[in-house]
What we know:
Distance between the termini: 49 Å
Shape: globular
CATH superfamily: Ribonuclease H-like superfamily/Ribonuclease H
Number of strands: 5
CATH topology: Nucleotidyltransferase, domain 5
Number of helices: 5
Helix content: 55-70%
Largest sheet: 5 strands, mixed
Strand content: 15-25%
CATH architecture: 2-Layer Sandwich
Radius of gyration: 19 Å
Amino acid sequence: MRVMGVDPGLTRCGLSMVEGGAGRKVTALDVDVVRTPSDVELHRRLLTISDTVEHWMDTHRPDVIAIERVFANQNANTAMGTAQAGGVIALAAARRGIDVHFHTPSEVKAAVTGNGRADKAQVTTMVTKILGLQQKPTPADAADALALAICHCWRAPMIARMAEAEAKAAEFKKQYAAKVKAARA
């Protein structure tokens, strides 16, 4: 499975591409950070992010996109910009029929470090070890994008099982409702 990990942001948007193999084997294919100056109009910044992401999707052909879920923090402007960047990326994926999954920062940290409250240095160190990289990815947005892709590779089997279980439960509910309706008739 080829996963594109995205750490969304207006000033720095981390992008990564990894290939998930058997078990927990993950191989890094590419990583980059899209930068947009804060003095540029919002719509132009979003266009730069969109153009770069679309190029990545067309070039790397991911099977799925893993995006960090926006969480409320003290700076509403930062949260808004992060959400807008994530929305542009999710839209580009939807236009190409690529599934999108959102992961919280604590899910990602727990997946790669075993601790949902790990700091950025711990995440970067573990990403470097997991992928067998020669040097630590910088800036932190690049490491975070790789961590998102790794997290999704490792969580995908569980996500698929959950979706299958939910589909079965919905079918059983539908069958039960039909039996109840038939019994009342």
